[in-house]
Design brief:
Blueprint: E1 50-58, E2 63-71, E3 74-83, E4 94-98, H1 100-113, E5 130-138, E6 141-148, H2 152-164
Antiparallel strand pairs: 1-2, 1-5, 2-3, 3-4, 5-6
Helix pairs in contact: 1-2
Length: about 180
């Protein structure tokens, strides 16, 4: 999908909150309570050429987010545990620089999985398990994939994101 131009969230300050109805825009649809400190993917499209975010939320084992951003030859990964259980508090974000070789691995995984062509949602749901949301933005193009306990290519992308974020997310068992 082509991002709205201008996107209403690009110019709002993160401190202002997101008082605009984010549900109206696919690129901003994930501004759930879990991502209250995470800006919409469109916010930095002028400064970051490409960005991906993986949000993992489980029924009982907490939640975590991994955000990978590339600008020219600089690739940054930021991860954050949003709670190891429903009762625990979120932990501070951890940032690290990835190599261009790591970036190539991410790009290869996205290509092999056909990420940009996958349906955004599927019909599979369950009572226990984990919800996986993977978002991607290249320039003005945005795509998201939302799955419950995925297998195959979507699982492989999420597993790669958690692997690159280690040791911050090393003890999470993905399902």
């Amino acid at each position: 999908m082509k991002l709205p131009n201008p996107c209403p969230f690009e110019k709002t300050s993160p401190k202002q909150g997101f008082g605009i109805e984010p549900q109206r825009f696919d690129c901003c649809r994930v501004q759930s309570d879990l991502l209250r400190d995470e800006p919409p993917m469109c916010r930095f499209r002028a400064t970051n050429s490409e960005a991906y975010r993986f949000l993992w939320t489980s029924s009982f084992n907490g939640a975590a987010v991994v955000h990978i951003v590339r600008q020219d030859n600089f690739v940054e990964l930021r991860s954050r545990v949003l709670g190891r259980s429903r009762l625990s508090r979120e932990e501070p974000a951890v940032s690290t620089t990835l190599s261009l070789e790591d970036w190539k691995i991410v790009q290869n995984a996205l290509t092999v999985s056909n990420f940009w062509s996958l349906d955004s949602a599927d019909e599979r749901i369950g009572l226990d398990g984990a919800c996986w949301l993977i978002e991607g933005r290249r320039g003005d193009t945005y795509h998201w994939v939302d799955r419950w306990c995925p297998r195959g290519a979507v699982y492989d992308i999420g597993r790669l994101f958690f692997t690159l974020a280690e040791p911050a997310l090393a003890d999470f068992r993905l399902y």
